[in-house]
Amino acid sequence: MEDNVKKIMHVMRRAPHGSIYTYEGLEMILIMAAYEQDLSIAFIGDGVYALKKNQDTEGISMKGFAKTFMALDGYDVEKLYVDRVSLEERGLTEDDLLVDVELLDSVEIGRRMTEQDVVIHH
Amino acid sequence: MEDNVKKIMHVMRRAPHGSIYTYEGLEMILIMAAYEQDLSIAFIGDGVYALKKNQDTEGISMKGFAKTFMALDGYDVEKLYVDRVSLEERGLTEDDLLVDVELLDSVEIGRRMTEQDVVIHH
Amino acid sequence: MLHTINTSPFESPAMEECIRFVQQGDPVLFIENGVYAVQNGNRFTDAIAALQKTSPVYALQPDLDARGISIVAPGVKGIGYDGFVDLVEAHQVNSWL
Amino acid sequence: MLHTINTSPFESPAMEECIRFVQQGDPVLFIENGVYAVQNGNRFTDAIAALQKTSPVYALQPDLDARGISIVAPGVKGIGYDGFVDLVEAHQVNSWL
Amino acid sequence: MSHRFLATILNSDKVKIGILLKEGPYNHQAADTAYKFAEAAIKKGHTVDAVFLYNDGVINATNLTDPPQDDRNIADRWSKMAKEHGVEILACIAASKRRGITDDIMIDGGSITGLGTLTDIAIRNDRLLTFGD
Amino acid sequence: MSHRFLATILNSDKVKIGILLKEGPYNHQAADTAYKFAEAAIKKGHTVDAVFLYNDGVINATNLTDPPQDDRNIADRWSKMAKEHGVEILACIAASKRRGITDDIMIDGGSITGLGTLTDIAIRNDRLLTFGD
Questions:
Q1: Which of F21, F48, F92, F112 is catalytic?
Q2: Per-residue pLDDT band at E7 (split at 50, 70, 90)
Q3: A59 to chain F: nearest residue by CA?
Q4: What ipTM was predicted for this assembly?
Q5: Low-confidence residues of chain F, pLDDT below 70?
Q6: Quick check: F122 and B27 CB within 8 A?
Q7: Number of Cβ pairs closer than 8 Å across C and E?
Q8: Within an 8 Å CB–CB cutoff, is residue A57 touching chain D?
Q9: Which residues of A touch F26 (CB under 8 A)?
Q10: Number of C-alpha atoms within 13 angstroms, CB side, residue C36?
Q11: Residue F92 is among the residues annotated as catalytic for this protein
Q12: CA A94, CA A81: separation in Å to the nearest integer?
């Protein structure tokens, strides 16, 4: 019985750096990862920009955090879903992304959303 | 010489109640009105909703402020411009608005914007 | 799963995105500035009609009242905070901030 | 008059609205998340080209760098904070928040 | 176990709810909607276990706000809800440090804690609702 | 008058700038962009007269923030700019009351004032720039 294992999906919906939501969302995910829940992350809309390669935040004097997404694997957070439409609409492909993700159609992401106990948008 | 009279335009761009920007914008306008500057207010995008008739905020336990727009006249703030496209796109007409406004095309509002010394979006 | 939308469809893509992901039968509740989506006769009226073919659509009545929206798109049901609670009792929640 | 846009065109109508009101010859500067508008090859590339027929278009280079945008739409000029200051020296400012 | 069984009988249709609040008071309606929802849930006999404040939401927890007399007092409302209904009002420590929320200015009934607590809240409740912008 | 004439000769292409900042620190980039802009303007010899904090912008003025060591300290930056370059850092009193910003927790070099001061800033400067979300 996995009584205390909950399915928790984090949904990244905002572009990085313009606001803190993605970064503080990532901080939340890193803590939750220690609790051995069934975590997943979906990147939808401008949320896909969080995974863009070659982000260099030095000029805006902010800490970059794109590389932290690469460390998620080490925390056993391996379910990263990217919404295909959001990516294409932004003129990006999987090659533009820092990490390996599952590129999924909205129907499939929607199906996985419905299975969750908790969904948190950032 | 009107050395110290500046043309200041306030631009209302957000729907009321979901955030405080319109309300605090209005507070700013009321103070500025006392300084005898050349003030105007443009309502663009969701900003036009601020002027909608029959707003009753009792159920959300917030102070309503729609009627304060009706008082602007008494502060000699008489230049209220509403963007025609924004109003029509929202299925509204002048009859839906609390106060008398000038319904203008974007080109004309743009022209008046360009004449300003200061433009503040709320 | 209950989906809530709290931003104006004129100012945010949240409604559009939510509609792409919502599963058949899942209820959708508009709150805060989200209720502008269901004001009858604006350019989202067709989208709301299409959504209702597969999902029941609700709007928070106190938020409608606060914004002076008296006529909602056909089929949309106004509910109070207690109705919101009933939906949450029946469903997990997905808030499209 | 210098117009600045600081929100992503995918998430906000600010750019679309600004373009409707901007007067011929007035410069437009994209900053913060606004710079996503000028990433080459996305669905706003045509709109940026059309805008440039009447207005010079700039993007804040540090914001482009921060977001990993290396190729901007043709004709868009990347500038630093000092270039931003120069534009402000030359123009009144209209920030489309 | 028997307590749980009893609770099941008496509250068969009741749920335990956690709330995640991501925006500060007054600036966005989120704090108002979260409060009105929590109030209605409690009135219907559901349990509101905790309100976890994150992002700018931590600003709900300062006792220094002083809104106009004729306006609602958001901080006081949370404080009262904590005391009268046992709702935990919890501000994330990392988010609080960024916004200048400290123990010294914490509302009665509120406290500062870590994100681990939010995880516990997500695990132990039937629902986790998010309010924000 | 002669002083003004001299200033005109020496700074013929220089402008006096007021800044209106409408969002809090860290949560939105506005506070960063405003700062970087002000820094660049000062370096070029322009005058940054004042930064007026409005809406959630007033949260820039609390001295209680404690960001991570490896991150920028937004409150300190404003404080230093006030002291080193005479930039007035002003928080609107009505907006401050709603967010719990008081004289007791005000950063060095910052102060609380009314919207009339913003009007003065708009009148006495060549430019008023707004940063927000």
A1: F92
A2: low
A3: F36
A4: 0.97
A5: 1-12
A6: no
A7: 53
A8: yes
A9: 20
A10: 30
A11: yes
A12: 12
In this structure, which amino acid lies at residue B72? L
Q: Which residue, among F28, C11, A50, has the nearest Cα to E23 in the 3D structure?
A: F28
User: Smallest Cβ distance to A61: which of F26, F27, F72?
Assistant: F72
Task: Map out the domains of chain A with their CATH numbers.
Answer: 7-121 (3.40.1260.10)
The stretch E75-86 carries a mean pLDDT of: 98
Show which residues on chain C lie within 8 Å of chain A, measured between beta carbons: 1, 13-14, 17, 20-23, 26, 92-97
Is the distance from CB of E21 to CB of E54 less than 8 angstroms? yes
Task: Determine the length of chain F.
Answer: 133
Query: Token pair for residue A116?
Result: 């969750």
Q: Both tokens of residue A118?
A: 């908790």
- Separation in Å, CA A48 to CA A23, A81, B43, D40: 13, 10, 33, 16
E20: pLDDT strictly greater than 90: yes
How far is Cα C78 from Cα C63, in angstroms, rounded to an integer? 10
Supply D6's token pair. 């600081």
Contact D9, D15 (CB under 8 A): yes
Reply yes or no on domain F14-131 having CATH 3.30.160.20. Answer: no
Share of chain E above pLDDT 70, in %: 91
- CB-nearest to E46 from C80, C81, C89 is C89
Nearest to C61 by CA among B100, B56, D62, E10: B56
Is residue A4 less than 8 Å (CB to CB) from chain C? no
Task: For residues C65 and C69, give the distance between their C-alpha atoms in angstroms, rounded to a whole number.
Answer: 6
- Read out DSSP for F49-76? EEEEE-GGGGGGGBTT----TTS--HHH
Please pick, among E31, E81, E92, E95, the residue that the annotation labels catalytic.
E92
Structure confidence by residue, pLDDT tens digits, C30-48: 999 999 999 999 999 999 9
For residue E117, the 8-state DSSP code is: H
Are F29 and A61 an interchain contact pair (Cβ–Cβ within 8 Å)?
no
Closest alpha carbon to E81 in E31, E26, E10: E31
Taking an 8 Å cut-off on Cβ atoms, the answer to whether A61 and F26 are in contact is no
Residue B4's pLDDT band, with cuts at 50, 70 and 90, is confident
Cα-Cα end-to-end distance for chain D: 16
From residue C51, how far is each of B66, C37, C60, D70, E26 by CA, in Å?
A: 32, 12, 17, 39, 32
Instruction: Please give the full DSSP string across chain B, using - where no structure is assigned.
Output: --TT--EEEEEE-S-BTTBSHHHHHHHHHHHHHTTT-EEEEEE-GGGGGGGBS---GGGGT----HHHHHHGGGGT---EEEEHHHHHHTT--GGGBSS--EEE-HHHHHHHHHT-SEEEE-
Residue F55: its chain B contacts at CB < 8 A? 20-21, 24
The residue type found at A91 is G
| Res F1: pLDDT | 43
A41 neighbors A29 (Cβ within 8 angstroms): yes
Count of other CB atoms within 10 angstroms of residue A73: 12
Distance from CA of F124 to the nearest CA of B (A): 8
Which of A6, A31, A34 lies nearest to residue E123, judging by beta carbons?
Answer: A6
pLDDT above 70 coverage of chain A, percent: 98
CA E132, CA E34: separation in Å to the nearest integer? 9
Domain spanning C2-96, CATH class = alpha beta
Substitution target from C3, C5, C35, C89 for chain E, most E beta carbons within 10 A: C89
Question: In angstroms, rounded to a whole number, what is the distance separating the alpha carbons of residues A67 and A52?
Answer: 10
For F53, the token pair is: 């904090």
Domain segments of chain F as ranges: 14-131
pLDDT on residue B1: 41
Residues of chain D with pLDDT under 50: none
**Interface residues on D facing C, Cβ-Cβ cutoff 8 A:** 10-13
Ranges of each domain in chain C: 2-96
